[in-house]
């Protein structure tokens, strides 16, 4: 079985500041949106900010991947090529791409990573991507551990998998619902999230099956309990979703997974980190305290009935207890988690809707809300705003330090400072100075001065003083030696940073693609992408949906099945539905038809009318 000994924790960055905090909180790499052509059009960043993020990340041997993962039109290719060169010169370590047309451009020697929007779910597809030169492949979220392991056994490319965050209900890159209904293409970074809307489900006779529920909305992914199994299955990069999430979310979730992975590495020395430095925190990370719709490991362990979030697409937070006694304007809570002044609480009301309120005052387990909500005894309460926790995360909440051994010795003309960091980067700094015997032992003062590494990325793990006599060294001289030593060590680390270099022509190897025909699902939107597939044996290529919208084709392919959710799956539950198919989802003027492909265990969605 393939094993990647160096394991990467990959965090999202909506901007420079968030990316820097992700690094400080333990990320080995971050991914950030390009100025244009990123799959989150609202999360673009300037080349100057990306350059600054690269400089910051590389201090810790961390990497920056830029998402350039929309499909591209012919009139955008020239600008895309120019942008890629700018990103390369800015220090970008890899590009995350969807459009194969990019491989045909005049590229710098920058690694390409295959976005999950390429629909990477089979050994054959991943092996093809590896053979045409991709250096890392982001797997489909829907894969089980067994499917991941099967891909790992047949390939040697680095495999990346999502472990936390929001779930697309459709296979990524295979959803055209937003484009068809609202003219906003998910493959162009403009998804309108029709999957999070409330729908009424009716049968062929118009009878209502479910009314006003978020029937295509899934819970959020949380695979923190599955990391070791995913490691052993062959995952090299653990990805946190969330390029639109705020900085507090990124801090909390990155720190949580950093601690989880480090605990595994401590037991499993065959695995280790890809970056350097250790993070310490002012808070204890708790994923339930950040935005979530409830958690699921999704389909990692096979079919799972508990993946949906029908009642609300909003964050529910963490369960804190049940309403016990209601008295006047206050109530008591039976629970183990303390509630504080300023917290935000939520509950599902009698109509099944999520309703929230703020805590004005909390006295032990008695709560005084600002406005009294319509609560009943035994109502389950959630906290979707922890006031004290948010206050902690709004301030500097982590430091990341690279361990360095410091040795101060002597030479014929003065002293020599040697600094060696945890990666064996080393500087030797001779310092001319007339030696004088000290009137008293200087050891403690020398240690104190040399370990004052303050705002630098370094932290002294050991200080050795190898003098033949007790020499007098003024504190000002020690401070200056330390300052120059730190500058030199940072320069050495910058020189030693290994930036992966890839020959551009490797992306054009004449490997045969996995099929001879590409439908609209191939997302081919430009001549270069067409030329790529033709060169790899594809004989018939249809244009992307965004170039030529089609009628009566599936707009969404999903492993989430409403027939299964309602208990009527003929394969798993073997129960017969009392309603007549086909079923439809209705929202205002939108009417969607459901089709069930039991052979693939998929639900397909079509637009009607």
Task: Provide structural commentary.
- An 8-stranded parallel beta barrel has the order 1-2-3-4-5-6-7-11, surrounded by 5 helices.
- α1 runs parallel beside α2 (about 45-60), α4 (about 125-130) runs parallel beside α5 and α10 crosses α11.
- The model has no long low-confidence stretch (mean pLDDT about 95).
- By secondary structure, it is an alpha/beta fold.
- A hairpin with a 2-residue loop joins β28 and β29.
- Helix content is about 20%, strand content about 25%.
- The chain folds into 4 domains: about 5-165 and about 220-275 and about 285-290, Aldolase class I (TIM Barrel), CATH 3.20.20.70; about 315-395, Elongation Factor Tu (Ef-tu), domain 3 (Beta Barrel); about 400-495, no CATH class; about 515-520 and about 535-605, no CATH class.
- The protein is built from 13 helices and 30 strands.
Shape label: globular
Radius of gyration from the alpha-carbon trace, in angstroms = 28 Å
Low-confidence stretches: none
- Which strand order do you get reading across the main beta sheet? 1-2-3-4-5-6-7-11
Helix/strand/pairing class, anyone? alpha/beta
**How many strands?**
30
Notable characteristics:
609 residues, alpha/beta, TIM Barrel, Elongation Factor Tu (Ef-tu), domain 3, 8-stranded parallel barrel, 6-stranded antiparallel beta sheet, 13 helices, 30 strands, globular
How do you describe this structure in short?
The chain folds into 4 domains: 6-167 and 219-275 and 283-289, TIM Barrel; 316-393, Translation factors (Elongation Factor Tu (Ef-tu), domain 3, Beta Barrel); 401-496, no CATH class; 513-522 and 533-607, no CATH class.
